[in-house]
Each structure stands twice: as C-alpha cells, then as structure tokens.
What does this fold into?
Amino acid sequence: MAGAIALALVFCAASVVVYVAIPAAMGKPRPRRFDSLEALRAAAILFAPVWVLLVGHVLWALWGLASEFNPSVQDGDLRWHALAFVGLITSLGALISAPLALIRVWTTERQTRTAEQGHMTDRISKAVEQLGTEKTVKVIEEGESVEKTLPNIEVRIGGLLSLERIAQDSVTYDRGRDHVRVMEILCAYVRENAPASTARDDNPRYVWEAALAKAEEELSKDIEDKVQRHSEALELAHQRTGLKPSDLEWGGAATDWAASLPKPRQDIQISVSILGRVDKRVSRRPEGVIQAGICDGDQLGTRPDV
It folds into this structure.
C-alpha cells in the first residue's frame, strides 16, 4: 500500500512538471488571473495518475476476490466476501463517475462562457446601433414647415455610456478583452462626427509660426547674421499678420481665440470624456493601453467643456 501511495505521488509530481513545462515550451504564457477552465484542466492533469492507480487497484482487488471465491465456505465468510465485492463495485462506480462529473462541469462552464460572450456581443451591437440613431424634426424656413434629420443626441449619449460600462465590465471580468475595441469605437465615432477637416485653422499661434518661418526663409538669402535676420523676420511677420509674440501668451489674442471656439456637441464631449476616464487598472497591461494620440486632431476647432 505504501508503495502504491509513493508511486501515486511520483506520478502527481510528474504531472505537475508536464503541466508547467509544455506551455512554456510552446511559448504560451499562463493567464495572470484565475481561470476556472484552466483550474479544471490542472486538476484533471494532476489527479489523473492517482485516478488511474486507484482504478487499477480496485480492478486488481476485484480480480483477486473473484479468483478466491469458493461457494463451499461458511456463511459468515461468504457474507464478508459479498460485502467486499459490493464495496469494490461501489468504489469502481464512484471512480468512473468522477471524470464524467468533471466533463459535465467543464461543458457547463464552456456553455456559460459562450452565453456570456454572446450577451456581451449583443450589448456592443445594441450600443453601436444607438450611436447612429437620428430623429426627424420640423423647422420653419421661409415661412414653410420643413422636415430635417438630426442626430438623436439623447439616444447616442445612452449608447456611449453603455459602451463605457461594457469597457469597465470587460476590465473587471474578462481581462479587458473588449476594452480596446470599445475605445476604438469611441475614437471612430469622434473622427466621423467631429473631423479635423471641419476645424478652424485660424489659430493665432499657428498663423504666427507659419508667417515667422516664411519670413525667416525669405530673409535667409539676403541676411547672414542670425540675430538681425530673426529681428527683421519678427517685424515682417508682424506686418503680415498683425500679431506679435506677446499675443501668444495668456490673455493675448490666442486666449481670445480659444474662448471664441464653439463648444463641441454634447455626444462628442461625452466621448472625449470617456476616453479620458481610461481605467488605471489596465494602463499597465498591453491590451489596456490607449495611446493619447488616437483622437488627436479631431477636436482642433472646438473648445472642450472640461
């Protein structure tokens, strides 16, 4: 008996080594978080040698009991013989049902995960549908009632907040599997509904820098001294734009220009706010890193209300 236990322990240790070594050799990293299916697989691999030894031991005992059976023995011995046989059969049935129960648990878990993934897909699809909703309103133009199609801002905001909730749930329960996808949807929504092509390009800072660079280039052919060339370039840029370097400081023309920008549409503002609320818990994970430049340039002509 002691030898069988020692052999079972040796097989368990070998199973652990195989379980750890095979994925490492194949270049597959272990999941960082607890995975129920992975736990079931590990338990099956770990206890498989023990199960095989127990089944073999029970079968061997049954064979020995059957080979030693003698109908001519006394009733008391026959009774104990029958009880031993029933006990071994019961043990064998329990051992055979163990892997079947494990398979049933495995199948149930897979079905549950499939249902969860389908539910998540439905949630994303419904939220994306809400992002494209429109409404028809009647307006008076030149004394006539005209129907116009406008974005349904209320429904779109609901879709945006639903996407944010999906991203948060994905980080909490699904290792951020859908987090980046949701962020990409939000960025695409901002790009399509507030493109940089519609932004104002009269930013005083950009106008001044472009005029100064052009003046520097024009004067570089005639003036070699850098200080003199820069001084005359400043004067030339001022004549062409009416601006001066002090206008770019706080309280100058650039500040007035920024204050004159229109506020973004409410759904666009909420999209940008959601992108700014990226969960810090996933900022260190590759699948959770959202580059700040994804949506750069889409709001150059609007003034975020944040």
User: Anything to note?
Assistant: The chain has nine helices and two strands. The longest strand covers residues 134-141.
